[in-house]
Amino acid sequence: MDPKALYRSFKENRDELTDYIHEVKRKSPRDLFSVINPTLILNPYASRFPLHFFEKSRPKSGKYLRFFKATAQFYLKNFYKLFIYAATFLFYRLFAGRKALPTAPIAIDLFFLVNPILEKNSIEENYFPGLYDLLEKRGVDYTFLVRLYGIRHNPFMIIPLLKIFKHDGRAFIFEFDLLCASDLLRLTGYIIRYPFMTLRLIQQESGELDKLFNSELLDDIKNSSFESLVRYLVGRRVAHRTKIKKIFSWHEFQAPDRSFALALKEADPTIDVTGCQLYLNYPTYLNSIVDDLDVELGTAPHRILVNGHQYLQHRDHIPYETGPSLRYRQLFEWDQQTPLERRDIVILGSHSPQETKLLLRSADALKRPIIYKSHPTLPAETMKAYLS
């Protein structure tokens, strides 16, 4: 299906898809394994169910074979990640030791990008720039809940990272400060059980959509997120081991965001969570929309901050409010010697190299000046060949 026809199908059939998923979620067991299921979340980067639905693809055959294949892939991927995670946990404990947790009542929960920190030998946070100077000016006591992004296959990276964080001087809580060895055993149990718990979500096949859902559900077993299991345990430890009462969290409502919220609601529902969607969203990013049903399921924060009025959603049980565009502040700080022209095209890069290249190629065809801002996880240098 060509892109125009696909987008037309999306606009015409989106409500049918979301209504179907809502009905499945209402009937599903309300636990961790359902909450993190990529097919139910409709994340287009974690499941091909939305794409195949809008393309009107036919379901695949051979369910049993695909279940065993996806399960084998899931185990291989997640037990490898568990091994790397356990090694990182061990190195952290060896080099950081036991320490008293910060007592600040407010936490900023967001990603810290490993490679840029190591390259610059300092912490430069690109998600909420400008916020911390304001908090410190007003005397607000806060701590960071650190979500490391980029360790991947090298647990030794935690050693130089620790030195940089120690020299920063601000208060940080790593997940390794909160978890213990028994949590590694819990992760093992979650991994073993997950594929079989997914089978509870299989629908009675009364139509083509049920068949397609079941087909994608089995394929998506291999796509489930290891981080979502970790974040569930972190959420419970935050509730039980810290004095945090208010959390501002970078929030795309992906599986780890949902499992973290679920854990907090189960362990201490009085902890107030603000989900910060302070980025440029787009309609096909279906997982990012928080609905009233998500509040009922216990996976939603208490409110959502968005980047502008166009992103406000009208819900009965989850308030949407406009927040500051902290991440895009520099877009509005032009050098007066080089004013922005009407012909200029501003490209805000995606986290996906392929999508960003496509954007830049498309803009280049217009033969107009391009102003490019890279995504925090994708260094601008990687796109130099497309910016000539």
Keywords, separated by commas or semicolons:
single chain; 388 residues; alpha/beta; seven-stranded parallel beta sheet; globular
Describe the structure.
The chain has 15 helices and nine strands. Helix 5 runs antiparallel to helix 10 (181-198). The chain has 388 residues and is an alpha/beta fold. The chain has a seven-stranded parallel sheet with strand order 3-2-1-4-5-6-7. Strand 4 (246-250), helix 13 (255-267) and strand 5 form a beta-alpha-beta unit. The model has no long low-confidence stretch (mean pLDDT 91).
Distance between the termini: 32 Å
Runs with pLDDT <50, length 5+? Answer: none
Name the structural class.
alpha/beta
Q: Helix segment count?
A: 15
How does the overall form come out from the CA principal axes? globular
Strand content: 5-15%
Order of H and E elements: HHHHHEHHEHEHHHHEHEHEEEHE
State the major sheet.
7 strands, parallel
